[in-house]
Design a protein that fits this description.
STM4215-like; Immunoglobulin-like; 5-stranded mixed β-sheet
Length: about 230
């Protein structure tokens, strides 16, 4: 993919200034004839595009652009033509700040007129394959039940205002003046159901059998004075 970006940039340079040598290597120390160096300096982050679909992945390529010719005037002309053409090309941006001396030192070259051209490279990401629904939607209702109960204390006296919880379903109900409580629309469950009762400043957990008759209350003995 980066090699395609190299070819695109080389073709663009030839279109702008005609038939000159284009090198992707570092600027030559002793060039001959006329030419352009488009040396890939770095890869940089590039913000994702805002699109209606899945945005492509993209990175920014930063090329050091410099020119050479038989005379300095001609080399400057080529460089200027490229700079102004890049400013008018969609997706191309240029940086005219001079390179740090350390960069030229690393390239083993004397500083010279140049600019950095940035161009994005994108990789499309296809949308995930979506399987079509090929059969009618079938809805199977889940059987539901009711759990009714009564909270009583010593002497089978009703305890009103007790909080009864079903922790596994994150449900809660309160007992009325007769100590009665009711949960509606519970999924049917085989075996025992775990409840938690909070009353008179105390809490205890209990497991009760699901009654065969959902209208028959389960009596829960609660002793607020038990140790």
């Amino acid at each position: 993919m980066l090699d395609q970006a190299d070819e695109t940039l080389s073709s663009w340079i030839g279109h702008v200034i005609g038939n000159v040598a284009v090198s992707l290597a570092a600027p030559p120390d002793a060039p001959t004839g006329e030419g352009v160096s488009a040396f890939l300096l770095a890869l940089a982050n590039c913000p994702p595009l805002r699109t209606a679909g899945r945005p492509p992945l993209q990175i920014m390529l930063r090329y050091l652009i410099s020119t050479w010719a038989a005379t300095p005037q001609r080399a400057h002309q080529l460089l200027g033509d490229l700079a102004f053409a890049a400013m008018q090309t969609a997706d191309y941006t240029i940086d005219l700040d001079p390179l740090p001396p350390e960069t030229w030192l690393a390239l083993r070259l004397a500083p010279r007129p140049a600019f950095v051209l940035s161009m994005p490279v994108r990789q499309e990401r296809p949308l995930p394959k979506v399987e079509y629904v090929r059969s009618p939607l079938s809805v199977q209702p889940e059987p539901m039940t009711t759990l009714a109960g009564q909270i009583v204390g010593p002497g089978n006296l009703a305890i009103p205002g007790a909080r009864v919880e079903i922790p596994s379903l994150n449900l809660a109900a309160y007992s009325d003046a007769n100590g009665l409580f009711r949960f509606l629309g519970l999924p049917v469950q085989a075996g025992k159901r775990n409840l938690r009762v909070l009353a008179k400043g105390r809490q205890f957990d209990i497991s009760v059998d699901s009654p065969a008759d959902s209208d028959k209350p389960v009596v829960i003995q609660f002793d607020p004075f038990a140790a």
